[in-house]
TrEMBL record:
It comes from Methylorubrum aminovorans. Residues 1-20 form the signal peptide. The keyword Hydrolase does not apply. Belongs to the Omp25/RopB family. Keywords: Signal. This is Porin.
Amino acid sequence: MIRALLLGSAAALATTAALAADLPRREAPPVAFAPVPVFTWTGFYAGLHTGYAFTDNPNIQTRGNDPFTGANVVLGRRAASLKSEVDGFSRLGGGFGYNVQFTPGSGFVAGIAFDATWLDLDKRTGFYGTPNPTIGNASVYTQNLDFLGTVNGKLGYAFDRFFVYGTGGLAFGQVSYGADFYNPGATVLQYTGGGRKIFETGYNYGGGIEYAIPVDSFLNYFSIGRWLGIKSDVTIKAEYIRYDLGSRNVLVNQTAPVPPGSYTSRFSTEGSLIRAGFNYKFSGL
């Protein structure tokens, strides 16, 4: 009897163990990790900048259009070639554009950009010619670049929040030219030309670097997107632009029948611009 009970108990224990083995194991739920957001340069942006502009080797060339004025140039009474260099800080500028990053995080970025900078870069150059016969001839050249605009393509590589790029495309600006030639002693204006504001076009090229400020930085407090419910980032940038708006001939004509003839002065508009500023980059709602 006892033996039968023992055998029955052993069988019951074995059956219970087998059933327990078939039950699912109790394991702790897996730890959920929130993915770290990957920064991308894709999106529309707009911002402001200021800058510093300088011309390094511009020449104003003058020739006489008749034997009398031609002789004055040959004799050095008027400047055949005159360097006119100028530099200065720009006023204010702004721009906008759109970038596309092909692989988030790090990867190639392409984009388009429009920028305009108020330069008010004014050149005024004087020349005092050889004595004629004892007092030199005075010449005054003026040239002003009011603003410079660029419409560019951009191509570069992003290292997460750092973006290094090259840029180039169309350049345009409003330029004025002028030349006033005086008699010996600079008491009478004998020849004058130019003075009109002209819309010039040309090309530009350069490169830059841009950095997106981390979201937890206090500078992102100034992001306008956060107040409008739009995802946005603040970026800071610096870039170098080399521009060339070409050359233009200006007829410098006589102001009275005497002395006779006329001159032609050729002005070139080219230089360099260093721009620094910030952008708001919008990525969506």
